[in-house]
Amino acid sequence: MNAPDRHELFLLEDGEKKVEEDPETRVPNAAMFTFNKEDHTLGNLLRAKLVKSEHVLFAGYQVPHPLFATFKLRVQTDGEVTPKEAVVKACQDLVKELQMLDQEFTKEWELKKIAGAGADI
């Protein structure tokens, strides 16, 4: 069909960058970030995290075409931090939250196994 090979959706080609930044010239303190080999999952997580930041005035993303694993994230800040700093901070916060989620899930999974093993006695 028209869909690309599955490995093309997540493996970067030689010389291809994961994220590219283009400053916005029409709006102050704004930039457009292009994320390669990513989709709505990361785009929506980043947008949601960015809009909660006190220094971010606007954050939105778009997926230019559904067959290509790429999205564009537009970020505008109040000038106290750069758009790049805001995106990096949002990524760091998301990694911390996902690590906490992993720990909690693992803990609950182990407790469920222990409780299930005790019911067999």
UniProtKB/TrEMBL annotation:
Residues 31-103 form the DNA-directed RNA polymerase RBP11-like dimerisation domain. It comes from the Eukaryota. The keyword Transcription applies. Keywords: DNA-directed RNA polymerase, Nucleus, Transcription. GO terms for molecular function: DNA binding; DNA-directed RNA polymerase activity; protein dimerization activity. It holds the Pfam family RNA_pol_L_2. Its main location: nucleus. The keyword Nucleotide-binding does not apply. GO terms for cellular component: RNA polymerase II, core complex. Gene3D superfamilies: RNA polymerase, RBP11-like subunit (3.30.1360.10). It is found in: Nucleus. GO terms for biological process: transcription by RNA polymerase II. Belongs to the archaeal Rpo11/eukaryotic RPB11/RPC19 RNA polymerase subunit family. PANTHER family: DNA-DIRECTED RNA POLYMERASE I,II,III, DNA-DIRECTED RNA POLYMERASE II SUBUNIT RPB11. This is DNA-directed RNA polymerase. It comes from Neohortaea acidophila. The lineage of its organism: Eukaryota, Fungi, Dikarya, Ascomycota, Pezizomycotina.
